[in-house]
Amino acid sequence: MTLAEKLVKDHRLTLEEYKRLLDDRDEETARFLAEKAVEVRKNLYGNRVFTRGLIEISNICRNDCLYCGIRRSNRNCERYRLNPEEILSCAEEGYGLGFRTFVLQGGEDPYFTDEVLCGLLRELKNRFPDCAVTLSMGERSRESYQALRDAGADRYLLRHETADETHYGKLHPKEMSFENRMRCLRDLREIGYQVGCGFMVGSPYQTNAELAKDLQFIETCKPDMCGIGPFIPHKDTPFRDRAAGTLELTCFLLSVIRLIHPPVLLPATTALGTIHPLGREKGIQAGANVVMPNLSPVSVRKKYELYDNKICTGEESAQCRGCLQQRMESIGYELVVDRGDVRKDV
Ligand code: 5AD
Ligand code: FES
User: Fold this and answer.
1) Could you give the CA distance from residue 257 to residue 21 in angstroms, rounded to a whole number?
2) Could you count the other beta carbons within 10 Å of the beta carbon of residue 246?
């Protein structure tokens, strides 16, 4: 039996086997895994692709991650934040377009205290009781995560970025720690969020050994969601001259992750659409099942630039949604607008 066949059968490999699967990968294995990944996803979710309306609420960040375009020390970044009023009106527009999940994403902006966020969450839940709200606002205390959950947040995305502590140290300033990242993910789980982790593909210093650890981490942690996309250099960061991650490896990993944990909600990310014009379509065809059209006001979109040449920065929300719907239909999938909760019954 090949390693790929073993993965399909057991939904797991050893650390050494994950590494070997990545080292020895070829087109034929990629095709085989994509076919199997699509098959298991179809058994659980049919040809439905879930949408989440992404609202980029602030690019002000107290952190200084070496890869990120909105890192604190980037003086060229024009900073903005949306106030609760503006966020609610983005959600209003999104609701009218059919969205039933909103993702509020932003840097670690001190303005968004528990008080401000809890007020916003209560208002969102009040106005749109049939919607799920996902937060993606970085590392906070357990008490804070609890308060936000109590105020109505349903899901939380916090990419682990890399499951290897040494590698984590090379991507982040020394004030940030792998240990705290893991603490956050544990707390979020225990508090009862649907939790998403994830990592960049092709980030600086990453080798197949680190990726094998990421896969093993997903195998043990079984996240409800997993965001993976290629690393793309940003011109105002220390990693400006590094190579971007590839479409090929990202799609391979999407298939593997789908097979490790079949019910996972797996987005075909904007970063994947940025490195290739059909990146998101190819991501879905490799096993992803979520897309996240941008609902941020057009006036701020270019400012939320985590990496160079980010797509979807000029389009109105309706255009962005329509564009993705067409793209999904062009490959035989249906864009669905319901909450799209993860299946827990399998
Ligand atoms: N390229 C790709 N993804 C990036 N992110 C941050 N910077 C980059 C980059 N240069 C990702 C990180 C973060 C998420 C919000 O965006 O994984 O968790
Ligand atoms: Fe860390 Fe932006 S500076 S994600």
Assistant:
1) 13
2) 15
8-state DSSP, 198:
E
Nearest-10 Cα torsion for 17, 22, 27, 29: 20
Among residues 293, 330, 252, which one has the least CA distance to residue 35?
252
Tell me the pTM. 0.97
Contact between residue 314 and residue 75 where contact means Cβ atoms under 8 Å apart: no
Which residues are within 8 A (CB) of 263 and not within 5 positions of it... i.e. 6 or more apart? 44, 224, 342, 343, 344, 346
Show the low-confidence residues of the chain (pLDDT under 70): none
Residue of 108, 135, 305 best suited for mutating to test ligand 2, as the one with most atoms within 8 Å of CB = 108
Tell me, using a 6 A CB cutoff, whether residue 77 lines ligand 2: no
CA 122, CA 148: separation in Å to the nearest integer? 9
Q: CB neighbours (10 Å) of residue 124?
A: 22
Per-residue pLDDT of 66-116, as tens digits, reads 999 999 999 999 999 999 999 999 999 999 999 999 999 999 999 999 999
| Cα 13 from chain centre | 24
Ligand 1: residue of 61, 231, 246, 309 to mutate (most ligand atoms within 8 A of CB) is 231
The reported pLDDT for the residue numbered 345 is: 87
Amino acid letter, residue 261:
H
Helix/strand/coil percent split, the chain, to 5: 45, 15, 40
The secondary element (H helix, E strand) that includes residue 196 is strand 194-201
CB 181 within 8 Å of CB 143: no
CA torsion angle 208 210 212 216 (round to 10):
-170
Pocket of ligand 1 (CB under 6 A): 67-68, 159, 161, 200, 229, 231-232, 234, 271, 306-307
Mean pLDDT of the chain: 97
Beta strands 48-51 and 53-58 are: unpaired
| Cβ-based burial of 248 (10 A; exposed 0-12, middle 13-18, buried ≥19) | middle
